[in-house]
Amino acid sequence: MVTETGSTNADLLARSAAGEDIDGVVLLAEHQTAGRGRHGRRWVSPAGSQLALSVGVAADMVPTSGWGWLTLAAGVAVADALTEVSGLQVGLKWPNDVLVGSDKQGKLAGILAEVAAPKALVVVGLGLNVTMTAQQAPDPAAVSLAMLGVSVLDRNLWADKVLRHLAARIAAWRAAGGADEALAADYRRYSCTLGARVRADTPGGHRVEGLAEAIDDTGRLVINTGDDTVTVSAGDVTRLRPGGSAGLD
């Protein structure tokens, strides 16, 4: 545990680059001043309001084709912990957002997995909003456990629950060499992307719209455009309302 750092993911990646074996190492921070999201975005949270942690995961026993499922496994682990402790209605938006509420519009947590190249090792980072207020929220979609009326706000307890579920999912992922049947089924159960009409904007500037049909064996999103089937490995995905307008996510 550190009081303050720029990014727990960046710290573990730096330690790995310096030669340290970070497999199984967990780094928690009271405050991240430069928390990272996907595509280089900042992950903003007030000091002491979030569970922010990163875990080093050796992936040498899993083919690289199965590494994409590690991010999804982490999302399922967070969803499992939230369901167990809070009873919230939890949904997972591909690839890395944890949403809550009957309409699955509130973003409660985010996950970022980064490869510690050239090693076969992945750093999985997550941020769970715990005590953040509406006034502190960085955008209208962000919510916290406190904002949702959850009574359990002890970040140590949440860290224990999340890490226990994450350890179990990582062990199963390693044993299966990717997505085991239970992980794939649980991801489908939590998913609020599959079965919805979506718009995917990829890092290369390509836009795909259609029905989110499946997650393939490598963790990619399969979208049926009506004319073709497109596989998306990374991007921002927005669920579309009838008529094609975008929702909040």
Provide an overview of this structure.
- There is one protein chain.
- The chain is an alpha+beta fold and 249 residues long.
- It has two domains: 2-178, 2-Layer Sandwich (BirA Bifunctional Protein, domain 2), CATH 3.30.930; 197-239, Roll (SH3 type barrels), CATH 2.30.30.
- 24% of the residues lie in helices and 31% in strands.
- It is built from four helices and 14 strands.
- Strands 1-2-5-9-8-7-6 form a seven-stranded mixed sheet, with helices on both faces. A five-stranded antiparallel sheet has the order 13-12-11-10-14, with no helix packed on it.
- Helix 2 (68-86) crosses helix 3 and helix 2 (68-86) packs across helix 4.
- The longest helix is centred in the middle third of the chain and has 22 residues, at 155-176.
- The two termini are 32 Å apart.
- It comes from Mycolicibacter terrae.
- It is an enzyme of class 6 (ligase).
- Pfam families: BPL_C (PF02237), BPL_LplA_LipB (PF03099).
- This is biotin--[biotin carboxyl-carrier protein] ligase.
Notable features of this structure?
single chain, BirA Bifunctional Protein, domain 2, alpha+beta, seven-stranded mixed sheet, 249 residues, five-stranded antiparallel sheet, SH3 type barrels, 4 helices, 2 domains
Give a brief outline of the structure.
The chain has about 250 residues and is of the alpha+beta class. Helices cover about 25% and strands about 30% of the residues. The longest helix is centred in the middle third of the chain and has 22 residues, at about 155-175.
